[in-house]
């Protein structure tokens, strides 16, 4: 019995498939892979011929993509071609994922801020030419604990969401294996709850700042107001209103510094 293959990927637009990471069975032999994009009415049987890779070794796996979806996984077992079972997981930017398995203190969730370009598949070769392979941007944290294709390590870039009351001034960013990032509607909601708590805390601070400053302005204006002429009183009131408006604008600006992360998880 061969263990079902797990595939981690990203859609780039509607017709480019970004293959990031693949868990393969531990069959005790070298593992080489090719990825092919099938036309609309193609069948897997048309791809049963396995050629040698650049090193001269016969390919063991062939991943067939059709309509931006994994149609089939072909496995070359001693010259006999088998179609293997597989499960696909697609990720997207701004999605919130559970990274508890990484064991980072006070951190359960993170936001995907960047997904490196790895192995692309598309029927449109002109579009493929627009992309270059990219690497993770931050410190590598964690590692895949399964067997995988070496050229597809599957690290993605994350911004940590600590379990704290207030948003950190500088949120830490790391690169972690995509297979250690659990996705789903509930995971997205729970991460959003932490971020909403940060927004509420800043809103409370802004409100308190506005109220305390208004009280100080009113206290000063009462004294100044009594000793000025009618014209000066009018000008002074206009100045107070302008100051109050600027204060509210500043408060709203502070509130907007919290990243809202409005991406919807369509898990």
Description:
- The relative contact order is 0.14.
- Helix content is 27%, strand content 30%.
- It is of the alpha+beta class and 267 residues long.
Mind sketching the topology for me?
Elements: E1 5-12, E2 16-23, E3 33-37, E4 61-66, E5 69-77, E6 80-84, E7 86-90, E8 96-98, E9 107-114, E10 119-121, H1 125-128, E11 148-153, E12 155-162, E13 173-177, H2 185-226, H3 230-255
Parallel strand pairs: 1-7, 3-4
Antiparallel strand pairs: 1-2, 2-10, 2-11, 4-5, 5-6, 8-9, 9-12, 12-13
Helix pairs in contact: 2-3
Strand content: 25-35%
Rg value: 28 Å
- Give the beta-strand count: 13
Query: What's the main sheet like?
Result: 5 strands, mixed
Shape: elongated
Which range best describes the helical content: under 10%, 10-25%, 25-40%, 40-55%, 55-70% or over 70%? 25-40%
How many helices does DSSP assign? 3
Q: Can you tell me the residue ranges where pLDDT is under 50 for at least 5 consecutive residues?
A: 257-265
Oligomer: single chain
| SSE topology string | EEEEEEEEEEHEEEHH
Distance between the termini: 29 Å
Please state the average pLDDT score. 82
> Helices and strands: which structural class?
alpha+beta
Provide a concise account of the structure shown.
The chain has 267 residues and is of the alpha+beta class. It contains 3 helices and 13 strands; from the N terminus they run E-E-E-E-E-E-E-E-E-E-H-E-E-E-H-H. Strand 1 and strand 2 form a beta hairpin.
